[in-house]
Design brief:
- It is a single chain.
- The protein is mainly beta.
- Helix content is 7%, strand content 44%.
- The chain is built from 2 helices and 13 strands.
- Strand 2 and strand 3 form a beta hairpin.
- The protein is globular.
């Protein structure tokens, strides 16, 4: 996971042990994650976050990046996979932007596109959340591998994309593929800029056109430079594999019985 930290402004020269010291000194308890001694969160400004987790009684820490985004998307759940090593995470798979009962017509797809994403507040799920439930999630994608960043007309896949809009988000489906990863081919709408307040490094967030509503992608400038790829620009297209992660933003049963979706 260390290379994913580059997406939120931690250069390759920053060691994990050094970062853990900063998280321990300046961080706070992570919501829905258990004991603050084993689950810490450091907010970096501009919605950027880094989280450190370890199993109780262990010394090994896992450090992961996150981005708080205001956009919520409706996800009709098709599968929930609990993480054996952590009760606080779960992998959700489903269809985004499912039609409401009034909108659905026979033969329609279950939604506009499929998505797989990790959620970090899985403790909020209870036994009543089953496949078929519609939740709202706020998620962002972190670059695992970027194949291409190019002017929209030069990108490799638009002629064979699944959507007429030229947007593709497709979960990896192989048994050996990491969970929560999707292949994407998306047009960049805007670039939002912020700064990692710990390192002072600038961070760019590529907000991309996707079916239903925009989605945020995070890329490592160091990785792009190593691979000879240009920085993202509005109007250009990103193609590659991204790990999606985020939080539940709505749809859980409320005390008065109302639900989302």
């Amino acid at each position: 996971m260390d290379f994913l930290l580059e997406c939120i402004g931690f250069p390759p020269t920053v060691g994990v042990e050094e970062l853990l010291e900063v998280i321990d000194d300046r961080g706070e308890a992570a919501a829905w994650r258990g004991s603050s001694a084993d689950h810490r969160l450091l907010q970096l400004g501009g919605g950027l976050e880094v989280r450190a987790d370890r199993d109780p009684g262990q010394t090994f820490w896992t450090v992961t990046p996150h981005l708080r985004v205001p956009t919520r998307r409706r996800l009709a759940i098709t599968a929930i996979v609990r993480a054996k090593e952590s009760p606080f995470d779960a992998l959700l798979a489903g269809w985004c932007a499912p039609p409401t009962p009034d909108e659905w017509r026979e033969g329609d797809p279950p939604g506009l596109y499929r998505l797989a994403t990790w959620i970090t507040d899985a403790r909020r799920l209870d036994g009543r959340v089953r496949p078929g439930k519609v939740l709202a999630v706020s998620v962002a994608g972190f670059a695992v591998h970027v194949d291409q960043i190019a002017p929209n007309a030069e990108a490799s896949q638009p002629a064979v994309l699944e959507r007429p809009s030229g947007a593709m988000i497709r979960p990896l489906g192989g048994p050996e593929d990491p969970g929560g990863c999707c292949d994407v081919s998306l047009r960049i709408r805007t670039i939002q800029r912020t700064v990692n307040q710990v390192t002072g490094e600038p961070v760019e967030i590529a907000v991309c056109d996707a079916p239903d509503r925009p989605i945020a992608l995070m890329l490592s400038p160091w990785q792009l430079e190593r691979d000879g790829l240009p920085p993202p620009r509005p109007g250009w297209r990103i193609e590659g594999t991204f790990l999606f992660t985020g939080r539940i933003a709505g749809g859980l049963q409320k005390r008065r019985g109302a639900s989302f979706g």
